[in-house]
Amino acid sequence: MIVVKDLKRYYGIGETAVRALNGVSFEITKSEFVAIMGASGSGKTTLLRILALLDDATDGIYTIRGLEVSSLPEAERSFYRLTQVGYVFQDYALINEMSAAENVYVLSMMEGKSKKESYITALEALDKVGLKEKHDRVPGELSGGEKQRVAIARAIAKKPDIMFADEPCANLDTNNSKQVLDVFKELNEKYGQTIIMVTHEPWHVEYVSRVITLEDGIVISDENRQNNKISPK
Amino acid sequence: MINDIRVGALIAYCSIKRGNKKTLTFIVFVLSLIFLNLVFLPSMIGGLLGMFTGFIQDYPYGDIVIEPTDGNAYINNADNVLKKVRAVEGVRAATKRLDVGASINHKQKVVGVMITGMLPTEEYDVSRYPYIVSEGNFLSDLSRDEIIIGAIIAGTGHGSEIYDNLGEVRPGSFVDVTYSNGVKRNYKVKGIMEGTFEIVDLNALVHYKEIEDVYGLEGKEATSVVVRVTDQGTETRVRDKIREAGVNEQIFTWADKSESLIRQAMQSMGAIDIMSKIVSLIVGAALVLIITYINVMNRKKEIGILKAVGITPRSIVVSYAFLSTFYVLLGIFAGLILYFTLMLYFQANPVVFYETIEISPVIDHVLLVQSIVTMLTLSVIAGILPAWSVSRESILKAIWGQ
């Protein structure tokens, strides 16, 4: 589903250039729940942003379902982000002046659905993350875990091919983190949602099927946890 | 595009519904002041012009004035003209006048003036001269060897210090008048008139018969026939009817006369008016730009998030267009309330100008519509520019400042 070949991302030029990604390659198949791990500065967030089409690679190939997405013009990337990709931010990134439902259904409206249809879709997504009853609450009236679950609902409402999550539990306590990860796991196991999550918490690997570890911009290990098989690089 | 509008409207609606009400109040307040600035001064200038043209109507020219054809000093058959004019539908009153040049001498002080010979009883229906006598009395049909002197010439009116005047002339004083043909007459001052209008207060009035006698006229001549119409606004139509009635002299409406008389003044005021509007609009547009810019900067991350989740830049710009429109409409509404409140106040308490002239602002509906449209257009453009700029920034820069 996803093929990444020799992906590079440099900041700056010449000798002083920072090589955030220095030739990353891997493939991800449908319905995998992948954790990208690594120390601070290893390049995991940079990688995720490129995969989610929020940033451009300096070099390398990145395809989704065989389509070379990294070279798409901005308008098509925007459309791809809207229809094919869900993104869960570390700090929830909800619009504070919108209710939970509005935060979710604004994307459905962007896709051209009617307001009623969008609202129903939003309630279904909020139901999946256990927040249907709080659909009319604004982010300021929700706990950190609830906000993150609204962000997940926003990401899954459009039924994306892939969902990306950038340290979704970084601002949450253990209890809320477990709730969020449970939601991810359920989405993955029950609905076959492909999820790629950046994390630095070792205990999060219990929830995922695969762990890719980065160090200094390269993949140093690729562990398939279902088969408990480690693929050192 | 329709999806962009729907989403833009939703974002703007949520922003208005749940946004900071104090900020909204502040923005609306500032915009209302900008709107007020845009319409208040022109209303005052309109009031000033209205007052000036009012003077023109009330004293020298009436609503319509008939003057001799080019090359003639007099309307030679003024009574016949008056007869025709009075028969025209829409004419309320009319009278004839004789304006001549003269100098007035009092205790060795000499002042050059325009003296108007008039029929006093007819003036009550045609002009305000009979009603502005501040000391003494107005002329009567029996007034001979009597004169009404403008307050500035008399030396008692406001502004007399900057003009030549006769010193403290009072009713009962005697003055010597030397007409332009050299004839001298001695008159008793019957009254002092004060119209707070220089053309009036630098003038003097005598009975029509006095001028006839001095110039040897035969009771038919006039330098002007002054006409008042029944309904204001019908002057042009009545003028045309007077022409159709066979009056072949030059016929002017008060507007024609104002245009030639105060063209320069109007042009000066017009220039001030235009400059004031331009400055107001620039300041207004700049303020809206700043307000929106600060607003956009505060929401830069939000814009980045919206883009990151797939909302198009066009939707974001549309949302700010809606927001700006909403702010400006509220600002205009609040500005209109302020404006009409001030109009009511200043109409009840006119601005005193030159110590005696009271200026009340005039509500000009065309000006209001123009100002609303202009402010709306400029403000919406100024409002969406920052949004357009930020919506084109990269997502990473907008969200994380990278």
What does this protein structure show overall?
The complex is a heterodimer of chains A (233) and B (402). Chain A has a domain at 95-159. Chain A contains 6 helices and 11 strands. Chain A has helices at 44-51, 74-83, 100-110, 115-128, 144-157, 174-191, and strands at residues 2-11, 18-28, 33-38, 59-64, 67-68, 85-88, 162-166, 194-198, 210-215, 218-224, 229-232. In chain A, strands 6-7-8-3-9-10-11 form a 7-stranded mixed β-sheet, with helices on both faces. In chain A, strands 2-1-4-5 form a 4-stranded antiparallel β-sheet, covered by helices on one side. The longest helix of chain A has 18 residues, at 174-191. By secondary structure, chain B is α+β, with helices and mostly antiparallel strands. Chain B folds into 2 domains: 2-55 and 264-400, no CATH class; 69-248, no CATH class. In chain B, a hairpin with a 2-residue loop joins strand 2 and strand 3 (109-118). In chain B, helix 2 (21-58) crosses helix 9, helix 2 (21-58) runs antiparallel to helix 10 and helix 2 (21-58) packs across helix 12. Chain B starts with a helix and ends with a helix. The interface between A and B is medium-sized, with 32 and 26 residues.
Topology:
The complex is a heterodimer of chains A (233) and B (402).
Chain A: E1 2-11, E2 18-28, E3 33-38, H1 44-51, E4 59-64, E5 67-68, H2 74-83, E6 85-88, H3 100-110, H4 115-128, H5 144-157, E7 162-166, H6 174-191, E8 194-198, E9 210-215, E10 218-224, E11 229-232
Parallel strand pairs in A: 3-8, 3-9, 6-7, 7-8
Antiparallel strand pairs in A: 1-2, 1-4, 4-5, 9-10, 10-11
Chain B: H1 2-18, H2 21-58, E1 64-67, H3 78-86, E2 91-106, E3 109-118, H4 120-126, E4 133-136, E5 146-150, H5 151-154, E6 174-179, E7 184-193, H6 198-201, E8 203-207, H7 208-215, E9 224-229, H8 235-244, E10 250-253, H9 254-261, H10 263-298, H11 300-308, H12 313-348, E11 351-353, E12 357-359, H13 365-391, H14 395-400
Parallel strand pairs in B: 3-8, 5-7
Antiparallel strand pairs in B: 1-9, 1-10, 2-3, 2-6, 2-9, 4-7, 5-8, 6-7, 11-12
